[in-house]
Records
---
Amino acid sequence: MVRIWAPVIIALSMLGIAAQVIAEEAGADETEPAAEEPAVGRAYHVDEYTQAAILRYPGLKAAAADIDAAQARLREAKISPFMQFEGRATLVVAPGARGTATFSPDPQIPWGNRWGPGGEVGIEGGIPIYTFGKYRAGKKAAAAGITASEYERDRTLARVVFDVRRAYFGTQLSLDLQAMISEGKDKLRKAVDKLDARLKADDPRVRQTDYWRLVSALSEIESRESEALRLEASARAALGILSGLKPTIVPECPLEALQSDVIELSEQVDRALANRPEILQLEAAQSARDANLIVKRAGYLPYILLALRASFARTPGITDIQNPFVIDRGNFAGAYAGLLAHWKLDFGGTHARVKAAKAEIESLKAKTEEAEQGIEIEVTALYEALQDAKRRLASWTRSEKETRKWFVSAGQGYEVGTTTAMELVDSIEAYFSARAKRLTATAEYNLAIAGLEKATNIPLLAPKGWRPLDCEE
C-alpha cells in the first residue's frame, strides 16, 4: 500500500512545503493589517487571489518607492549641476580702527580700541557651460537607475503571481486528494467492518490475514489524509497572507489541466532572453556603466564654468576707506563674473579610475552572458517538465478510467463474496495510485505553465484563463 501514496508524497513535498514556506516568508514581510474580510462563504478564483495579492504585496510597494527614489535622483542629476552656488553670512566682533588711505594713528591690530559688531554676506558659484560629457553621462546613469528599478518591480510582480498560483493549485490538489482518500477510506472501512463481523461469526471462508491486510491499508489511508490536511492548511495560509482575502475559500471545482498553447522551446527561450527582467536590468546596468566610463574619462579634462561672485561687508567701528586699491577688511563690496576652467590634476588616479570602469563593463558583460545561459537552462527545464507532465497526465488519465472499472467490480464482488480481500486491496491500490498520479501530474502541468510564464515574462493565458473552463462560483 505504501507505493499507492508515492505521488501524494511527491505532491506534498512539491506544493505543500512550498506553500508553507511562502506563508512563513510572506508573514515575516507583512507590515500592514489584513484587508477587510469579505462575506463568509465567498469563493475566489485564482485570478482574483492574484489581483488581491498584487494590490497589497509589500514587496511591490517597496518597488514603487524605489522607482520614486530613482526618479528623484534623475531630477537631481538634471538640476543640481546648475545650482552649485554657496552663500555665506558672517557676524563678527572686531576692534575699531581709524585713519585714511595713507595714514592711521592705530597699530596694525588695535587691541585697545573699542570693539564693535560687523558682518559680511556673500555668494559665489558657477554655471557649467561645457563638461566634456559629464553632465549627459550623469543623466544617463540616473535614467538607467529608473529603468533598473522598474524591472525589479516586474521581477517582484512575477514572483508574487507565481507564489499565489502555486498556493492556489496546492489548495486544489489537497482538496482533491482528500476527496479521493475519503472515497477509499469509506470503502475500506465498510470492508473492514464486514470482515470483522464474519471473523467473529467464525466464517470459514475468511482469514485473519485478510483482516490485517485491510486494517493496514485503512491505517495507511488515514495517515495520508493527515498529510493532505496539512497541505491544505499551509496552502490556504499562503493564499490568505499573500492576498489578504479571508476566509480563504476556493471554488469547489476539480483540479483540471489548463488550456494553453505553448510554443516551441526555441521561441520560449528567445522570449525569455528578450523579456526577462533580470536581463533587462543588466542592460540598464550596462548603460549606467558606460555612462560611468564617460565620466571617468572626462576627469582628464576640466569643467568650463561661468563663475559668479558677489560679497558685501560692513563694520561701523572701522573707518570705511573709499579706495578700490586699498584692502579694507571691515568694509568692502565686490562682484565679478567670468569663465573658469576647473579640474583636478590627479591624472594617475584618473587613469586608474578609467581602468576600473572598463573592468566593471567587462565584468557586467560576462555576468549578462552567465545570466542568459542560466535562463536558457531554466526555461528548457520548465519546458521539458511541462511536456513530461503532459505525457504523464494523458497516461494516468487513461489508467484511472480503466482501474476504476476494476475497483468498482472488485468492490461489488467483495460485497457478494466472489472477490477476496487481497483482490480488493489490489484494485484499490491500482485505482487510487492512478488517480493520485493523475492529480499530481495535473498540478505539475499547471505549475509548469505558471513557471514558464514567470521564466519568460510573457502571459501564456488570459487572466481568467487560469480558471477551469466548466467551473463557476
---
Amino acid sequence: MALQISEDHIARAPKVLLHDHLDGGLRPQTMIEHALASGYTKLPSYDAVELGHWFVEACSSGTLELYLETFEHTISVMQTQEEIIRVARECVLDLAADGVLYAEVRGAPELFTRKGLTMDQVIEATVEGFSQGTSEIAHSGKRIRVEHILCALRQNHASEEVASKVVKYKGRGVVGFDIAGPEAGFPPTDHIKAFNYLQSNGAHYTIHAGEAFGVESISLAVRECSAERIGHGIRLIDDIDFSNGQARLGSLAQEILDRQICLEMAPTSNLQTGGAASYATHQIGVMKKLGFNVTLNTDNRLMSATSMIREVREIADGYNWNINDLHDIARNGIYGAFISREEQDEIYQSQINPVFNQITSELSK
C-alpha cells in the first residue's frame, strides 16, 4: 500500500516547525511599510514582488556568510515594539495558513535594540505578537501554538545575558536558547558558560552546527556543549562512509543516532548556502532512512521564498515520501519540542495522530 500523497494531503497534513527565524520571515509588504514609516531608505526595492525576488536571489549565493548579510534589511525594520509585534503576529498567521500547529520561532534580542529597546522589551514584544496571532487563529476556529527561542550570536559576547533571559522568561512564552551566526572561527565552546547556566537552571537549548562547517562543529555542540538538538546538522553526513554501498557510521554519527538527537533540517536554505546540491539528494532523505531523528523546517521563509508546504512538497517529491513519512516527520517534531512530555503527548494524540489516521484511511480506500 503506497499511500502516495497529493497536494491536498500535503496542505492538510499537520506540521511541526522547530527551526524558523523571526527576522528571516517578514512579509515584503510589511518591510516596505515599516521602512517608509521609520525613514529606512536602504531597501533594494519598494515593490513587494521585486523585494521578495531580491531576497531569494541575494541569498542564493552558495555561502552562509553572504546569506547572512541580507538580514541587515529585515533587522532594520524591526526596531520598535510595534514593528516587532506586527512581524510576530503575522508570522503566526502565515504559519497557521500553512498547516503548522506547533512552532518554535527564534530570534536574537540583541539585534533589535538599536533604537533603545531593552532585551526584555524585545522579548515581551515578540511574545505579545505571538499571542495576538494565536488569538486571531483561535477566533477563526483553528489552533496553533507558537513559542519563542532566544538566540545569541556566536561571534558576539551576549550569550550569558541571553541565557539569563531564557531562564527569566521560561514558561512565559520562551522555551529555549540557541546560538546562531557564522560557524567558522566561532566554535560553540566559546559559549560554554551560557550552556552550563542553562543546564543548571533546567532550560532547553539547541545549537546551530554542521550547516556550513564540518563534523567538528557538531561534535563540539554535542560532546562538549551537550546540545539537545542540532540546527541543520547536514554535515554529519561526512561522518558516514557509503563507499562500499552500505552506510558505515563514524563514532559521532553513531552516537547521534543512538541518542536520537533531533536534527533541525531546512532543505531550501541548505541549497541556497551550498550545503546541499538538490532536494532529491538532500541529506534529510538518506538520514531518515538510516533512522536519524530528522525534522523538516523553513529556516528563513523570506530569504528562501518558502513555507512548510513547499519544504514538504519538495522533499516528498525528491524522495518519493508517502503519508507515513510525513507522519514520522511530524512525530519527530513534536517529540523534539522544548515543552513537557505531557504537552507533547496531548498535541500528538489530539491534533497530529487523528489527522494522519484520517488521511491514511482515505488513501487506503
---
Amino acid sequence: MAITIEELVDYARRNDCSDLHITSHQPPTFRRLGELFIGPFTGTKEDYRATILSMLNEAQKEDLSLGHDLDFSFESTPELRYRVNVYRQQKELAAAVRILRNDIPTLEELHLPDAIRQLAEQPRGIVLVTGPTGSGKSTTLAAMIDYINVHRRAHIITIEDPIEYVHKSKNCLVHQRELHRDVPSFSDALRSAMREDPDVILVGEMRDYETISAAVTAAETGHLVFSTLHTTGAAQTLDRIVDVYPSHSQGMIRSQLSGVMRGVITQTLLPLSDQSGRTVATEILIGTDAVLNLIREGKYHQLGSTMQSNAQYGMHTLAGDLANLVRQGRITRESAEKAVNNKAELLQYI
C-alpha cells in the first residue's frame, strides 16, 4: 500500500522536522535542526509517485504534464499547512515539502529583538527580511503582520507564492492573494493594490526589476511595504536591489531607497548547543539619517561599522549577535563560524 502524505507529514511534525523530501530513488528524507536523515518508511518508485500526485488537483496534474514545476500550499487538515514544490529529476517526480507552524507565533515567542517590533510600527516605507532559504523569513514576516493586525486598524494586503500563514482579520482587514491563483505576478498585484486602499502590503519576494520598482513606488506613495530577498547581509541586500537596475538608473534608485528604507533584517537559524531546537541570529539595519546618506551615496561597505556603532537605535551586525549567542552558551562556536560572513569580525567579538 502506498505511503500517504498524511503519514509522512505527521511523522515530520512529531519529530520537529522543518522539511520533507520525497524522491523516487530512496525512502522519504527529513530535515531536522538543519541536517537531513532518512525516515523509517519503505516503498517503491510507484508508491512515492502516487504519494506526490495525491497532493495535486487536476489542474496541477495538467500543469505538471506540460513540464512545469509546481509551487503551492497543501493542507493535511484545515489547521495544518505545508508549502510544496513538485519538480522532475532524471525523468522522475520529486517533492520538497516545508512544514509550516500551525499557529502564527508572536514576536516575543520568536525571541526577536525589540527593533523588529518598532519596524512593524512604522507608518510607511520599506522593511526587508533577508536570509538564506530555510532561515525563518516567512515566520518573522507572519509575526510582524500579526502584530500589526492586533495593534492597528488598517487594511493589509499580502501577495504570496504560495500563501503560507493564513491571517484572520482582527483589528485589521486582511486580504491574502496567491500568485497564479488570484494574481498573475507580484508586479501586477502591486500595481492593482494601489487601487485597493491598502495601508500595509506584504510582497512575498522582490524577484525582479518590475516587482522592486512597484514596491518602491508603493512605499513612496505612503504605504508600509514588507518583502524578502535571499541575501545574507544588509550591504549585500542593497547592492542586489540597485544591481537589478540598469546603470543609468542606479543613482535614481539609490535616491528613492534613501527616502523609503526603514530597515533590513537579516536572519539565520542555528541549532541550540544542546540540540533541543533552533534559535535565530539576526543582523538589523535601521534607516537612520546616517544610514540613508550612505545608501544615497552607494557606500554600502560602511554599513557594517555604522551598525556596530549605533546599538542605541537597535542596530547590530550578524557577527555581533552570533558572538552574544556563543557567550550565552546557546550555540556552539563552530555553528557561529559556519553562519557568519566575516569570521575575523566574529572572533574579534568573541
---
Amino acid sequence: MRQTVSAPVAVIVVALVAAIAVFVSSRQGPHPPPADEVFFLPPEPPVEEAELLALRRGTAPLGAFAVMPPLGPDRFRGTRVAMVAPGSPAAKGGIEPGDLILQFNDTVTAHPYALVAAIVAVNPDTVNEVVVERAGKEETLTVTGVDPSSLKDR
C-alpha cells in the first residue's frame, strides 16, 4: 500500500521548511557584505529635545543653526548650517544654509558644540573670521555683531 501526499499538504510542508531555513540562517549572525555594496553607519543616537534646545540657544547669537546630529562626511569636519535667521550676524556676514563652518575665529568647529563654545567666547565688538566650505571651496567670511551676552540672561 502506497501513501500519497496531497498538493496542499506538500505546499505547507515546503513553506514551513523555507521559513525554518530563513530563521536558522538569520540566527547565525551577519553575513559579510558583498564587495560592491556600501553600508552607512546609523546616525548618532537620537538627539534629546533638551540637547537641541541648548544647541539652538547657543548658536542664536550668530543666527546660524546647525544640522544635528552631524551626519555622513560632516562628522568631525565641521558644522553644517541648516538655517540662517534673516537679518542675523550670520546672514549679514554671508553665511548661507548648506555651508559647512570649518572654523570660527581660531576655533576649529568640528562639531556643533565646538561652534557654540567659540560663540560663547566672543566679545560683542569683535570682528569674527568664519571659514566655511561652500560647493567644495573654502571661503573666509567676516561676521560682526555676535553678542553672546544675551545667553547669560536666559
